[in-house]
Design a protein that fits this description.
Keywords: Signal. α7 runs antiparallel to α8 (about 185-205), α8 (about 185-205) packs parallel to α14 (about 315-330) and α9 (about 230-240) crosses α14 (about 315-330). Strands 3, 4, 5, 6, 7 and 8 form a 6-stranded parallel sheet that branches. The chain has helices spanning about 20-25, 60-70, 85-90, 95-100, 110-115, 140-145, 165-180, 185-205, 230-240, 260-265, 280-290, 295-300, 310, 315-330, and strands at about 40-45, 45-50, 55-60, 75-80, 105, 120-125, 130, 145-150, 210-215, 225, 240-245, 255, 270-275, 305. The protein has 2 domains: about 20-200, Rossmann fold (3-Layer(aba) Sandwich); about 210-330, Nitrogenase molybdenum iron protein domain (Rossmann fold, 3-Layer(aba) Sandwich), CATH 3.40.50. By secondary structure, it is an alpha/beta fold. The longest helix has 20 residues, at about 185-205.
Length: about 325
């Protein structure tokens, strides 16, 4: 949820040193006496050459868990984790890694924090970390000698010529390219292959019939904040055998009107659980909202708690889809 902002593979991190440019998919040459050569990749439509980062900083769970899933905790200078993510961190399969890496701030990402940390590389999303309004953009960081990588999902909102990539493909791209940047290509390939296989298993085992209509509720009383067709929950719901009622919105996360929710008659409400307020309070609000009283989800009591770490773009998206699929089967959908 960008308004503030899995199965875990247990093998040890694999450090892959590229001896030839073709082995890394990068158009570079290497001097064997100088260590790994820089790699050049495309990020949000820009060709960027990266040496191996030595003091990486990650923002929020999406960035942090991509790093952890690739076995890169020991390569990190620290993380910036908004306090609203605290409950979700405690539920993460990477809790040990969270505790091993310094938390630099519990607020939003700022240039002061990463400069003071002497970071050389920052991982975050556009408008979910990087922000022109707050004065922390890839360009501004580059001016002080700090490189960055933006989540491919967030390229949809970046620059004059936004790059639109389906959420699941965006996740695979990030894991693959971060693996290239840190020279752990083998581990990245193993992780992406595992996620692809599990996603395909979900697709091929979906129930017959019309998919359940699902409303992803993040927060909001006067107007609900939800996920559109460019957000990770959209593909999570789809893989599980449901249909996001706002899949037609070309947005990642956005505010909508209650009338649109009511008109869609959701059969299930997936409530995102993080530290903005207790998830039980969110569900009680939805149950008591007069405008939702006649909706099938409220009438039948079909509320599903979606963990924050599964709802943001990250390696737990597939785990989230698997668990939501089990829930839909349990209610006969």
């Amino acid at each position: 949820m960008n308004r503030l902002s899995g199965r875990r593979l247990l093998a040890a991190p694999v450090l892959t040193v590229c001896l030839l440019a073709t082995a890394c998919g990068a158009d570079v040459e290497q001097d064997a006496t100088e260590g790994p050569a820089p790699v050049t990749i495309d990020n949000c439509g820009q060709s960027i050459t990266y040496p191996v980062p030595q003091r990486a900083v990650a923002y929020d769970m999406s960035s942090t868990e991509k790093m952890f899933a690739l076995g890169l905790a020991d390569r990190m200078r620290g993380i910036v984790m908004p306090s609203t993510a605290d409950p979700a961190v405690e539920r993460s399969p990477w809790l040990e890694e969270y505790r091993s890496v310094e938390t630099l701030s519990t607020d939003v990402l700022s240039r002061e924090v990463v400069v003071d940390a002497e970071a050389d590389w920052v991982l975050a999303g556009w408008n979910s970390g990087f922000s022109e309004a707050r004065g922390i953009t890839p360009q501004l960081l580059e001016e002080v000698g700090i490189q960055s990588y933006q989540h491919t999902e967030s390229c949809f909102n970046y620059g004059d010529t936004p790059v639109q990539v389906p959420p699941l493909d965006a996740l695979y791209t990030d894991l693959t390219q971060i693996g290239q940047i840190f020279r752990v290509e083998d581990r990245a390939q193993e992780l992406v292959s595992d996620l692809r296989e599990r996603a395909e298993a979900l697709r091929t085992n979906q129930p017959d019939g019309t998919p359940a209509r699902v409303f992803v509720y993040d927060s909001g009383t006067d107007q609900p904040f939800t996920s559109g067709g460019q957000g990770a929950p959209d593909v999570l719901v789809s893989l599980a055998g449901g249909s996001n009622i706002f899949t037609g919105l070309r947005q990642r996360w956005t505010t909508v009107g209650w009338e649109a929710v009511v008109d869609a008659a959701p059969e299930v409400i997936a409530v995102v659980d993080y530290g903005d307020q207790p998830v039980e309070d969110k569900i009680e609000f939805l149950k008591s909202a007069p405008q939702l009283a006649s909706s099938p989800a409220v009438r039948d009591g079909h509320f599903y708690v979606l963990d924050y770490g599964q709802a943001v773009s990250g390696p737990r998206n597939i785990e989230g889809a698997e668990q939501f699929a089990e829930y839909l089967r349990s209610i006969g959908r």
